[in-house]
Amino acid sequence: MNVVTKPPATAPTLTDQQIQGALLTGVRNRWWPILPSRLVAIGDKPLGLTRLGEPLVVWRDGKGIIRVQTDRCPHRAVPLSRGINEGDRLRCNYHGVEVGPDGTVLAVPGQPGCPLEGKKAVKTYPSQEIAGAIFVWFGDALNETPAEFVSPPQLVAPEYSQMLCYADWETHWRFLYDNNMDPMHGTFLHAVSHTMYQGDTKAHFVTRDTPTGFFFEKEGQRDVNFDWSELVDDNALFVRLEIPYPPSAGPGGNFAIISFGTPIDDSHTACFFWRVRKVSGWERDTWRFLYRTKIEARHWAVLEQDREMLEGCKPGIEKNEMLYQHDAGLIRLRRHLAQETRKQLAALQAAGKL
């Protein structure tokens, strides 16, 4: 008797459309900043917001600890952010259901002892506060436990002073990263800036690998203009860059920017720009005074130029681009994001979670 052997089943191939669709609302398995810490105080009403396309409720408990959960009451799925912060729990305003910081339903006043009580029915997100911002771990179904995030030293080391600029822009999140990995735009778009008017309008760029990403930099020009960017992807995705400062801007040497662009949805981005200088003691005080009184308004003017440009861009415009050598940094960035997303989706697919 002949035995017919079936060929081994193969997993369906992921399409570019699936990859790009997943990327619309960000890369998972990363720490993302969601909000400045100052916007959530003890006793404040719970705050509802969207990040990475997910509805969140953010609140600070009676001990000052930030709590981040799905903004949905397990009873009737209304927003918990429209409820009351009781200090050790949220109480839904609709029917009084009480949810603890770990997502457990603590009480159902309308029917005490009902099966909903004692259930962990609300997703709770790991969170931490770093340099004045609330960071949240957005893991997929295979990575709900957060990986360690080693913050860039510019945000936590005592020899640095940093100030956070935050704004919501009506643009796709990847365009912010494209912009930051494009040093050449500073020479043109920001040519009237007090710090970015110098240097050659022509340049050749090179890439340099690091353990957690890569540098994209002008060859033969350093500390003249916006001459390089560094992409870092180490359980959090951000761009670091430096802009040279004249002595009139006070002590501290070059002015560094640590930038995160957290997806809100597929067309809005929460933009975080930490402005950093390496200063301490009296130099720190001098620099912060100069920044607040003289420099900050100029920086917002530069950011406004970026915002106006990026808000004119919509997802899908890439098919109309004709890129050249100056764009090698953003090409590599896009390839990296697509590869990371493909790996994540493939793992979910293999586990039957996709």
TrEMBL record:
It holds the Pfam family VanA_C. SUPFAM superfamilies: Bet v1-like (SSF55961), ISP domain (SSF50022). GO terms for molecular function: 2 iron, 2 sulfur cluster binding; dioxygenase activity; metal ion binding. Keywords: 2Fe-2S, Dioxygenase, Iron, Iron-sulfur, Metal-binding, Oxidoreductase. It comes from Pseudolabrys taiwanensis. Residues 31-136 form the Rieske domain. The keyword Transferase does not apply. InterPro entries: Cholesterol_7-desaturase, Rieske_2Fe-2S, Rieske_2Fe-2S_sf, VanA_C_cat. This is Aromatic ring-hydroxylating dioxygenase subunit alpha.
